[in-house]
Sequence to fold (310 residues):
Amino acid sequence: MTQADITTVAPANLAKSADEFATLAPSPRELMRRRAKSHVGFLAGISIIIFFAILAVFAPFLAPHDPYDQNLTARLLDPVWGPKGTWAHIFGTDAFGRDILSRLMYGARLSLMIGFTAAAIAGVIGVTLGIVGGYFGGRVDAVVVYLINVKLALPVILVALSIASISGGSIIVLILVLGLLTWDRYAVVVRSLTQQFRDQEFVLSSLAAGASHTRIIFREILPNLTNQIIVVASLDMAIIILIEAALSFLGLGVRPPTPSWGLMVAEARAVMFFKPHLIMIPGAAIFLLVIAINLAGDGIRDVTSPEGRG
Fold:
């Protein structure tokens, strides 16, 4: 083989090898699918969240009884595994004769609605302030930092208790209060990351090409913040659900007879030594949902990250 033949065949072989490698290499979407299938925490968290979501959405069809119906002749019945338990009330009844399982299903609807809506409100406020302060810097950033410091100085639980006691347990007011009191985590994380991204080459090249600030923020910076925002949102949603349960437990959140997990725990205090399942069942539901949200958030972060952690 002459030198001319070698120079002719070599580029063709290299091109063929490159095409074969591109064909064999999995796409980013395929990589994420593989990571999701092998991530135990993500699968466990998503499965539990889907389970509670199904209970919440289809509660009117799945609940065996009306959660508001009282039957004093059937009060404080044992769960099905108890000595006097019946399948008519799988988790038993409370002090007013209301079915625990039905109230648990409707309570899941309330907890998920409050947690998701309040976390979305906090996310919009925090992400907006974080990106604006981190990207523009200067006096704009100084104002954002001042707002973050003021918010961090406020005790969330005490402020929520005060406003909840004044508002009278309105669900809408409770959602707005929790959303307005939990945006600082988003702002701190997003501001710090935006300050790093604004000096990166992909942002500087967009500026040099004449792209507007709005386009750079929404097309270049915000997509790179998705993983971190998801992690913060999962933590924030879990905290909001716990705060709502605590407020309801103290009698300053959701008002009776509305089904709420925190309220169910509070109503069972009088008989907790005789009927411990009345506290353990809603407490276990709160625990499982909070753990599942955190597992799902961490799993999404690991699955979608370029380096494929986890």
About this structure: Residues 6-10 have pLDDT under 50 and may be disordered. The chain has two domains: 1-37, 39-304.
